[in-house]
Amino acid sequence: MKVINLSEQNSVMNHFMAELRDKSYQKNRALFRHNVERIGEIMAYELSKTLEYKPKTVKTPLGTLDIPLTKEGDMVIATVLRAGLPFHQGFLNLFDHADNAFVSAYRMYVNREHTEVGVHAEYIATPSVKGRTLLIVDPMLATGGSLAAAIDALLEAGKPKKIHVCCVIAAPEGIEVVKEALPEDSTIWCAAIDEGMNEHKYIVPGFGDCGDLCFGEKLQSFRKLVEKESRRNLKA
Length: 236
Ligand code: PRP
Ligand code: URA
Known about the structure:
Blueprint: E1 2-5, H1 13-21, H2 29-48, E2 54-60, E3 63-69, E4 75-81, H3 84-94, E5 99-109, E6 117-125, E7 133-137, E8 140-141, H4 145-155, E9 162-170, H5 172-181, E10 187-193, E11 196-197, E12 203-204, H6 210-215, H7 220-235
Parallel strand pairs: 1-10, 4-5, 4-7, 7-9, 8-9, 9-10
Antiparallel strand pairs: 2-3, 5-6, 11-12
Helix pairs in contact: 1-2, 2-3, 4-5
The chain binds 1-O-pyrophosphono-5-O-phosphono-alpha-D-ribofuranose and uracil (URA).
């Protein structure tokens, strides 16, 4: 399986990554979302170079020419809510004819010390992915639990021709988990691969909680109810 780390090559993306990671820039939520979206656009452009193209004849007002184009109706872009939304928009800005899928999944701690996380997946809206190019885009790949749950759910909708998993920052442990859930010919794209995770399963140095930085803090009392239920289920 191919793992592509775009930070191995310097580009303007470094500036967007620096602003995403910088605590002082993070106060500007609109800029944070915009940078996530721009990284989605850059990754989509790089990924587009690996797609299949067939020449199609185009008529200009003055003549005709053949331009290599991708197959119409081939691509599905799938996102994990909610931090995935601006990243998804970046991909959709370039692959504007793609169909779209949404998986709602979120992490919750399953022990009192908040050192172990489980994933709660609730909702999926997807077209058939059978025989198509499936992009699964989620900015953070930490434990890999959210993406593994999304992959399992999406594969219920058919066997894709090819899967690309795309993220902004990945932890090496998460990459290994996702590799297990993917067919061997899949590709994992990352804007950066960081050194690992802290005891609360946040990527270090990372940039913090992507969903909160994009959209604001969520009510923790709701998650506490789910965590309590998960602990009860684990004991049963
Ligand atoms: C973030 C992110 C990923 C997940 C990655 O979502 O968007 O889906 O964490 O972590 P994992 O690899 O350990 O599963 P989060 O659960 O914080 O939900 P949110 O987007 O609603 O804030
Ligand atoms: N989810 C995030 O938003 N950030 C992390 O560091 C890990 C998971």
